[in-house]
Structures
1.
Amino acid sequence: MESIVRDLEKLLKIPSPTGNTHKAIDFVEELFNNLGLKTAKTVKGALVATIEGKNKDKEVTLSAHVDTLGAMVKEIKENGRLKIAQLGGYVWNTIEGEHVHIETLCGKTYTGTIMTTKASSHVHGEGTKTIERNAENLEIRIDEKVLSHDDVINLGINVGDFVHFDPRTVVTESGFIKSRHLDDKAGVISLIAIARHLVNNNIMPNFTTNFFISTYEEVGHGAAASIPNKTFEFIAVDMAAPGEGQTSDEFSVTIAAKDSSGPYDYDLRKRLINLAKENSINYKIDIYPYYGSDGSAALRSGYDFKVGLIGPGVDASHSFERTHIEAIENTIKLGIAYLTN
Ligand SMILES: [Zn+2]
């Protein structure tokens, strides 16, 4: 598990907000290539790594998404601060105080901090507390001598520049991984670990297997195109959501029965549950009230295959996320059991 956590830490630290994912995709491609897997990129930038199976006429595809939440410069204000637009869905207060990188079109980066327009309690008193956290009232303070709109333009910063949030990755002695973007980089690393297990142990999966690393999941169309066409079963590996009323936790793999997009394939769910039982894998069955996956995106775009959703429990998703190594381990085990039984 140690090298898996090391790879995960590296991946978490590579900025990859939806729409600007090539560096993370290149990193993941290298990991697959190092295992000897053939890889190809789709036109819109997703990665497909393939491992040959005993049956080559039918294929299975496991997906995970490398794109994350982020932001874009929406407006350069007269006082030299930046308004931002969201990439992906999150609540504004989860990014207040966050350190960011602003990436200009020519690739230069500047640092800054996201704060409300009434950040100092010595200046704004009660207003500091009551100001609503929204697009209007949050801004980036750039760490440069900029006092006007033109000062910012002169740095090369412009509307549309990507804003990366500091992932704040910490691995604790007790086995927790605290970081932004565990959704779904924990899933991506699980797929790499599954591939590594097969390669290192000379195991041929039952069917030719594709690992599909998508790049637009957070905006809903990640796996909507270019899934290898012999695919008859598709499993999205994405974070599970623990919390009030949920069965998921940070130590198990969750097998989703349903999310907002509807039920996952019943036959496939039963098979995954049986595999978890037979292999003593800690698992939960859960329903997510506000959730859609790359499996949902694929089905909605018209693909005709069975779709399942599994993944490690990630606490406080789209906020200050945390999971435990055991959840990733259980996800990897279930993926291996699915491909080899
Ligand atoms: Zn996700």
Note: Residues 65, 183-184, 217, 238-239 surround zinc ion (CB under 6 Å).
2.
Amino acid sequence: MQSWPGETEILIIGAGPTGLALACALRELGLKPLHFDKHLEGLNSSRAAVIHPRTLEVLEAIGVVPTLLQEGLRMEKFRLREGSKVLLQMDFSPLPTAYPFALMIPQQDTERILMARLRELGGEVIRGVELTDVKMEREGVKALVRRGTEEHWIHARWLVGCDGGRSSVRQRAGIGFEGEPYEQDFILADVKMVWPLRRDEASLFLSPEGMMLVAPLPGDHFRIVATVAQAPQDLSLPFFQSLVDRRGPSGAKRITEMFWTSPFHLQHRVASSNFLGRVLLCGDAAHVHSPAGGQGMNTGIQDAVSLAKPLRRAALTGDEAGLREWSKSRHRIAKEVISLTHRMTLAIGLSQPWQRVLRNMILGVISRLPGLSQKFARKLSEIDYR
Ligand SMILES: Cc1cc2nc3c(=O)[nH]c(=O)nc-3n(C[C@H](O)[C@H](O)[C@H](O)COP(=O)(O)OP(=O)(O)OC[C@H]3O[C@@H](n4cnc5c(N)ncnc54)[C@H](O)[C@@H]3O)c2cc1C
């Protein structure tokens, strides 16, 4: 039976990190959006494991930073390596921010903390409700939602799609999603292991057969992400052990437990618009990209929190100037993030020996010019997007 109003000022579809951050930010401003997610509970998987400095700055507005800092692990150094040899080092500690580190924390913990904050602010997500159609109107949007066998039309003055890369909001609103898939498969595992390098650094290992990233997670865990030509059916512990042995540094390396594994295929795509009529898009619904640099969830949370004020203004006064400004700026940032992560993905995937020699020479030059590696650290931390 329907247990929500037939009309609302703001309807949010999707309660991943983006939708939760938006709901909190709107609540902080006194608005009470209606919020649906098709799943009966959160996805509860590790996925995005890093929160960058700019995202922590932005999250101050919704009061979750102290809890994130308490639960996460601070990581100051990022090193590009070939085996044990360091090709490039980046240091987050000199960055001009209150948070000069990358905060390592699994996505399900970030979502749990956001959800708890939303409840503190009096909000809730209505779960098990799927958006199936959208009709654009002059003064709003009609959204068809399904719960079990029941269907209802809801009139929303504003509809925000935070419903991920396959966004129904985006598709039903007829907004394009331009880009391409990547050829390689990516695989990941969260593990416990004996590891010869320090736990305050993440290392990206380049090798002719593909890359491997190893980053620390809270609780003595590590995240391993690697590219492979084709992901095997069985992502077993021995399979990851042999990857670590072949691509990792010298010294003792032994995976003792494996908690979560997943293959994933990637695309780089950006929505042709994130603001059409009364429809807005945030997060993966608006842009998807390679995990190189861990920018995905971060960019989505920043889209969401920065949308709250202009959306409030439009809802209360009808003035959409702030929304147009937001749309332009977030679209530009999405394109920049896609371009950066695409170039990084191509560079780490080079397989021809001459290409690799040239790339390593360029990395050597960058590492000798601290200004350049610092510029790169600023990009990754997203503080240039203030
Ligand atoms: C295996 C894996 C590993 C990843 N690793 C990283 C990483 O290391 N670093 C990184 O930055 N990113 C990573 N990502 C990407 C990161 O998880 C996403 O960028 C992030 O989850 C995007 O958040 P979002 O809230 O925009 O979308 P999502 O997290 O996809 O949330 C969308 C929500 O919308 C709901 N929904 C969808 N359709 C509907 C509908 N029609 N009606 C109602 N509800 C709907 C879904 O149930 C879901 O809860 C990874 C992703 C995967 C799959």
Note: The chain has a mean pLDDT of 92.
3.
Amino acid sequence: MDLDLTGRRALVTGSSSGIGAGIAAELAAEGALVVVHGRNAERANAVAAKIVAAGGQAAVAIGDLSTNEGAAGVAEQALAAFGGIDILVNNAGGSFDTPDPSFFSVTPENLVATYEANTVAAFRLIQALAPAMKERGWGRVINIATAAAITPTSAQPDYGPAKAAMVNLSLGLSKTLRMTGVTVNCVSPGMIRTEGLMEFLGNFAQKRGWGDDIPKAEEYFVKGTGQTVGRVGEVTDIAYAVVMLASPRADIINGTNFHVDAGISPAIN
Ligand SMILES: NC(=O)c1ccc[n+]([C@@H]2O[C@H](COP(=O)([O-])OP(=O)(O)OC[C@H]3O[C@@H](n4cnc5c(N)ncnc54)[C@H](OP(=O)(O)O)[C@@H]3O)[C@@H](O)[C@H]2O)c1
């Protein structure tokens, strides 16, 4: 199937590593012109260079999305790279500055910081880039949330609620942009094999006295999270979902929260 992404201009925030880097690579492989973003210029440049080496087109935008100024700078660089942005993937984020994620250890400041770097970061770029998509009559906003947005865990009270707000905001935006050709959807990953996850599982295995047995830690979480698919997700699992939603083939998919989580969040709607 031709996904008709050739020449479409995409900004993937937080693509200097992990899931974002995978999304950037797959969009570029489908012919999109991709702006790779992160705070770490070295890593962002390396991701862009890899895309170019594989025959794709990529540019780089650097900046911290947790401030208005930083986000404005990123939007400016992204617009300048290819003359506009048609596809915005708000992937940057995670859970920050929360060394102990247990409910009563997370501080109000942690909560605000996580909200800034996830929800508000996405909001800033949506305000900067979506109006021009509307004017052109076509566009995509794809927000990366998490399974924990609708299936909260007992910890990380900063993270799940911030991502839940992102899901809510996305549905509201899809209504704001009704009949414009711009769709807005979320992708909610479960456990995805990134460096961060591997580090977490490594530490967990050590604490449990399992030494370096990361597969054992993986199995523990696959079972414990109630997954109905027996493996951890790969970065490409998320990237394929995003590429599909980004395509004009997905023109009538709007206002959804797409669970790509190995069955952590079973839902009938
Ligand atoms: N991995 C999982 O299992 C999993 C599961 C569910 C949801 N998610 C979500 O998927 C997304 C990507 O996660 P990941 O695991 O791939 O994380 P990652 O490897 O840590 O990558 C995070 C990316 O976000 C960027 N970033 C973080 N804070 C930023 C800020 N304030 N301003 C600008 N850029 C910022 C980082 O840039 P620099 O490093 O260059 O600063 C990096 O490129 C996140 O939104 C996360 O919540 C991940």
Note: Residues 108-136 form the longest helix (29 residues).
